[in-house]
């Protein structure tokens, strides 16, 4: 049985306070535009959605929309950037005990990747990637810049996989995100918070056991 599509909301958007300055009001409007544009891309698809429809949904003029984003491709890239900037960063609290830090990162990562808007954008990219070659490079660049590089730096600081931290980071990310991949590819159910905790605990323990085993002197 196919998993129902996650329900999208505008819960994160809020009206700008009346006393906000003009620059703050403009920034708030730009953020709200990106939130609405993300939802419209997810709902209608990249090819079908027009700039006219986005302007109407966001309540801005076409002139303003094109002033902020030169075309639909630029707007879509901005929507992606707004999403990946939400990805958590691993925190190194105790280099001698990295498991707790990696577990906290893994839980935060899965909670973000199971958000309706994040899942919706991932489904959109998978669905339309064959038509738009630039999607592939956008996905790879976002993954490298916002996931692999920060995690690789964290692993290196913690003394894990010192010879190949980027390769180790990719392996760990693949293991952590397996429930999301299963949802996108085979319609498996997305995990809840309890399942996320259990999955992350198992993945991090397995990963650290393998990494420590490879680093033992022969």
Automatic annotation (TrEMBL):
InterPro entries on file: Homeodomain-like_sf, HTH-type_TetR-like_transc_reg, HTH_TetR, TetR_C_Proteobacteria
Alphabetic keyword roster: DNA-binding
Annotated stretches, region: Disordered: 1-20
PROSITE patterns the record matches: HTH_TETR_2
Domain HTH tetR-type: 27-87
DNA-binding region of this protein: 50-69
Organism annotation: Sphingobium agri
Protein name, per record: TetR/AcrR family transcriptional regulator
